[in-house]
Records
---
Amino acid sequence: MSGMSHHIESGSRPAEDVDRMVVARCQKGDVQAFESLVRKYQKKMLNTAYRMIGDYQDACEVTQEAFLSAYRGIKKFRAEATFTTWMTGIVLNQARNRLKQMKTRSRYESVSLDVPVESPEGMITREVASEDCSASEQLEKKDTARMIQDCLNDLDPEFREVVVLREIQGYSYDEIRGILDLPEGTVKSRLFRAREILKGILKKRMGGQG
Amino acid sequence: MKCGQIQKMLPACLDGILSKTENALVEKHLEACDSCRAAFGEYQHARQLIRNLEAVEPPPGFAQRVMARIEEEEGKKAGILRKLFYPLHIKVPIQAVVTIGVAVLAIQAYRSVEPRKETSPQFEITASSGQREEPAKEEDRQKEAVRPAKKQLPTSDVIPKTGEGIKRDAMTIPPPASAPPVETRLREEKATVPPAQIPGSAAAPREAEKAEFAAAGKKVKMEAKTTVPGPSPKAASLQKKTEIGLTLQAVNPASAGEKVQAILQEIGGERIERIRLGEKEIVTADLNPRRVPELVGHLNTIGEMKENPRLSQFTSASISIRIEIFKK
C-alpha cells in the first residue's frame, strides 16, 4: 500500500466531456466503452462504498453490483449530472441496501469479537473501546485508519454519507445536493451536524491525541 | 457573540462558506476564547484525519470481474433473444422438409393408387355390395327378363313421337359417329363366357350369375347417380370413356332396338339410351369392356353384325357403346 494520500478529486470540465462521450458510446451498446468507465472509476466508487460500509469484501460486492446497475441503466442516464455523481448515487443506494441487510443479519447472528475482520490493511480483530484503556494504548494497538473508519461507522448512515461525499470524495455542496437529491440547506445542516458528532466520536475514541 | 453561537458556525467556517462579516466575527472570538479555539482545532483535526484516510485499492481483476458479469448478462440477453428467434431458424426448414416429404409421398401414393382405380373399381364395389343386394337383384333380373327395356324408358329414353326431331339428354348423347372405334381385347376367360346367358336359364353357372347380378344392381344405382345434373367425379370420369361403334342389321329395327336395350341392361350397361331416327335405331350405353364379347354374341342372335369389333386391351373401367340398327 502506498502511503497516506489526500484523495479529494475534483472533476474537470474536459474530463466530464470525455465521460459524456464515453457514456454516449455505452448508450449505443458499446461494452468496451463501459469497461473504460469501470477502470477509470472503480477505485473512487470502491472507496465510497468501503467508507460507507466499513467492510472491504462487502464494499467490493456493492461496487460490482453498482456498476452492473449502472450498465443496466446507462440508457436512462441524462447529461443533467456527471457520470461520477450519477454513479456515486448508485453506489450509495447499493451501500444503504447492504447496510440494511447487515443490520438485519446482525440481529440474528452475534458477531464474535474474536473473529478477525478482513480489511485492506490486513486482518484485524474487533475491539471495544474501553474506559479503562488509555487512548495512547488503544492507538498503539490499532491501526489509525481502522480507528477512523470505526468512527465513521459510528455515524448514522445519513451523516456518514455527507462526510464521505464532502471530506473523502471532495464533492461540492451542489454536487452532494444532486447526488442525495436533497435541498442545499439540508445538506449543509446535515454536514455540520455530522462534523459535530464525528468530532465528538473522535475525541472520545482518540482522547487527547492530535 | 456567545460561545454556543460561535461553535455552531465553526463547521461552516471550516468549509470557508461564511460571509466575510461572519468570518471576521468568528476569527475575533477564537482569538479571545480558548474553549472555542480548542473546539475549532478539534474540527480541523477530525477533518484532517478523515481526509488523510488512505484510499483502498480495488482487488486485482476487479474491473475484469465486473465486465465478466456484464458480458454474462449480455450473453443471457442474447440467449433469450436466440431462444425467441431460434425456432424460426430451425423449425422453418424442418416444416419445409416435412411438407415437401408429405407432398412427395402423396404424389407417389396417388400414382400408385390411380391405375387400380381405373381397372378395379367395379370389382371392389361388387365384392362389397354383392352379397347384400343379391336377392333383390336376382328378382329384378327375372322381371327384366320378362319385360326388358321397360325400366329405362321413363328415365333416359326419349323417343320422338312424330319423328320430326330428336330429343336427347345432353348428358347421355354419344359422341359423333365419326369417333374412331376402339380396339378391344378381352381376356380369354371372359371371352369364353356363353354369349346368351339369359337370366333364369338353368344352364348359367350360379356363381357367375350372382356376381353378374350384383354388378348389375350396383350399376343401376350408379346410373341413377349419373343422371343427377351437375358435374361429379364419377361423371367426369365417364366423360373420358373410349367409344365403340357397332352396326347391326335387323328386319325390325324397333324390335331389335328394344332387345338390344334389354341385353345391355342385362349385362350391366349403364346410361342406356335408345333413339329412333326414321327406320334407324341407335342404342347407346356405357359398358364394362369385359362384357363386350357377351354383347357381340347377343347382337349376333338379334341381327346381322356388319363387322365385329376388333377387341383389344381396354384400360378404362367402362366404355361407351353405340349400336346403330338398320333395317335389313
---
Amino acid sequence: MIPSSLPALQIQGLTKLYGTVRAVAGVDLDIGAGEIFGLVGPNGAGKTTTIRMLATLIEPSAGEAQICGLDIRRQPNSVRRVIGYMPDTFGVYDDMRVWEYLDFFAQFYVIPATRRRQVVADLLELVELTSRREDYVQSLSRGMQQRLCLAHALVHDPKVLLLDEPASGLDPRARAELRELLRELSAMGKTIVISSHILPELEELCTAVAIIDRGRVLASGSVDQIQARFRRGSVVRARILGGPDAVGSAREFLGAQPEVVSVEILSEGRLELALVGDDDASAGVLYRAMSAGHRVVSFAPVASDLEELFLQITAPNEESAA
Amino acid sequence: MTDPVATPPPPETTPPPAMNDPSALRSFWASISAVGAKESRWRMRGRRAFVVVTIYVTLVSLLVYAVYQFMYDQALRMAQFQSDGIPVDFVSGVVSAQIGQAIFGAILVLQTVLTIMVAPALTSGAISVEREKQTLELLITTPVSTLGLVIGKLFSSLAYVFLLIAASVPLMSVVFAFGGLAPEDLVRAYVLLVVVAFGIGSIGLVMSALVKRTQIATALSYLVVLGLTIGTLALHTYWMFSTTDQENGFVRGLRVHDAPEAIMWLNPLAADLDVVCTGTPESYGFTCQYIALVTHREVVPPNQMRDAFWPASAASFLILGIVLTLLTTQLIAPSRRIWRRKRNRPPPLDPASEPASSSPVQAEPVA
C-alpha cells in the first residue's frame, strides 16, 4: 500500500501534564493514511500516554490531534468509531467464549446481529482462531489472546489502529505471526500506529518511525532516513580467508585506513571494525582492501547497529545529568 | 474492509459531522443489552445460580412454616384458655388473618435483609473488577454509552437479587390462603423491595467506580448500609431522647416530634414496618406505633394509618439510586465526564529542566 499524501493523524503540540511532570511535552506528528507508523522510545518516554490520548482515554493538557479529520477533544465519540485500540496490558473476561468476546464488543458499534455473526467469523479467520471459536478466552495462549485483542479492535472496521506494545510478552514465533497480521491489515488500507521500546523490532515493519524520549519527538521519518541522518559511524564485521598471517596483514591494512577507528581480531579469521562515516565510507574501505589483495568473504554491519543508534539518539547528556 | 479516508482537517470553529454515528438512544440500548447479556451469562452459567435459588426458596419455606406453626400453636392455646380448658382444634378467621399477616411481615423483612446484604456484594465489583482485570479501557475506547454501561452493569448485577425476590412470590402468595391481606399489600411490598434493591445496589456501584479495589469498595458499601440501617435508627432514637423535656431532673414528657422523619427515609426496615402497618392497620401493633412515632402522628384506633411513611422512603431510595447511577457515569472515566476540567495551559517551558535540551540530538520537524 502506497501511503497517501493526506495525513490520517495530525498531532500538534500534544501535551500531557501530571502535576508539574510533563509526560508528553508537545508532540507534533503527521501520519499518512495507510502508513505503519512506529512510536519508539525507552520505557517512560511518553509513548503510552500519547497513544492513550489519541485513543480518547485521557485528555490532553494542551495541544490538538485529529484522527481522520475528527478532533479527539471535541468529537471523542466519533473518534472512537474510526479507531481500534489495543492497550499494552489487557485482561480477558472469565467465562466468555472466543466468539462471545468479539460479539460483545461488536454490539457497542450497533452492528445488527446477523452482520455481527459474519464479522465475528471473518475476524476469527483473519487472526486464525476459527478453530478456537467455542473455547473460553482465558484458555488461550498469550499470543492467541493478543491476536484476539487485535481482532476486538477490528470489529467495526476502523480506519486507524492504535497498538501499544502489541508484541510485548510474545515468543519469536508469535511476534512473527503478529507482524504478518499487521502487514495484512496495512494492505487492507488501515493506518497503524504501533509503539515499542525496541527499534529493530519495528525496522522491518514500519514505513516510518518517530523516536520519542522524555515526552518529545527526537527524530522521525523512515528508519533509513533516521539512520542516514544520525549515524556517526558503524560497526562492521569482516571475515578474511587465509591463515593467521593473512588475517594479521588484513588487520594492519584496515587499521591504517583513515575511516577505521579500531580493528579487533575476534576468532577464525573474523575482524570487527569501528568505522566513521556513512555507507560510502564503508564501501571505500572494502574496495581498497579487496584491491590490495585481501580475501574478504564477508563485510557486513552488525545487527546491534540500529540499537546503538537508538541509544545514541536517546542518551542523556552527561553535562545536563550532572 | 474499506479504504482509509483522509479527511482534510476541519476549520477551527466547525468540527466535521460525526461519521455514521447511530443515534444516542440506539447506542444506549445496545450498551445496556450487550453488558446485560454478558453479565447475566456470566452469573447464570453453570449450576451455582440455580443451587442458590433452590436453597433460598427452601429456607423461605421453612420460615413460612415456622411462623405458621408458632402463630397457630399460640392461637390454639389462647382459644383453649378462653374455652376454660376445653381442647380446641381450630382457630377463628381472625386468627387465620393474623397468621397471614405474620407470614407477610416475616417474608418482607427477610427479603429486605437479604437485599441489603446481597445487593452491595453484587454491585460493588461491577466497575472495579473491570479495572482489576484491565478490561475497562477496552470498553471505554468503544462508543459505548456510559449511562448504558452503568445501567447494564447495575441491573444485571441486581438481576440475581430480583430473581431471588421473584422466587419468593409463590411463597408470599400463601398469605392469601390465610386472608387478612389484599393483593395491593403485596404490590406495596414488592415495589418497596425493588426500589430498595436499586438504591442499595447503586451504593455498591458508586463505590466500585470510586475505589479501585473491589474488596475496599465492598467494605465501604457495607459500611454505608450499616449507617442507613443501624446508624439512622441510632441517630433518630438519640435525637428523640436528647430532646426530652426535663423538669427538676425528672422526665416530664417526650417531645418525639423534634426528631426529623427524613432521618429514617433511607432506612429500609422502617419502610418495611410501614408496609406491614398499612396491611394490618386494625391491629395497631408495634409496627404502627413505631411509624406513628417516626411520622409524629397520633395512633387512635378508629383512624387507620395507611401509607404514612413508606412512599417517602421508596421515593428516597429511587432518587438515591438515580443520583448515584448518574454519579457513577461521571466517575467511570475522566475523559467521558460531561463537565470536563478546563484545559490546562502547560506551565512555561523551563529550558534548564527540559528533556530535549539534554539530548545530543535536536528535535526534528516531521516531514
